Fold this sequence. Notes:
This is TFIIE beta domain-containing protein. Pfam families: YlqD. InterPro entries: YlqD. Keywords: Coiled coil. The chain has three helices and four strands. It is of the alpha+beta class. It folds into two domains: 66 residues, no CATH class; 80 residues. It has a four-stranded mixed β-sheet. Helix 1 packs antiparallel against helix 2. The radius of gyration is 26 Å and the shape is elongated. The model has no long low-confidence stretch (mean pLDDT 91).
Amino acid sequence: MDAANPQQMLLKRPINVKAVVTPRWKDEVQQQLQAQINAVDQQLQQLEKQGQRAIAEIQKQSIQPPGPETRQQIESIQLQVNEKKSELLEQKNQSLQNLQQVQLLEMNQEVSQFQLEGIFSVQPGDNLIAKLQVEILLRDGIVEEIRGEI
């Protein structure tokens, strides 16, 4: 509470941040998504190599022909690799879908970017709902407009 006005208090509110679709914005978002896709591809390659190395190491240390315990270890590794591979492929698929959606956006369209938290004061007589409905509009990273009651 404010000492000058005991009927006033500070609250937190979510602030939606939107961006205007511009050629520069589209390029930057597409580059970020492509970088994510490339990173997932690298993780998939590393995962495959690590799985093969682990299996080869187990096979090298086991007696020939491999017993049930060795086969179980190999199956366990393959299962772990496949689970992680599925997660990574899901991430890649999501990034590819996002990339496709970005390509379909029209210029000057507004799209949600992220959400911030802001602090605001409220006192008797204020419209709380109106004070909670604040958003910031960016054009190429620069604040173009602040909408709502500050």
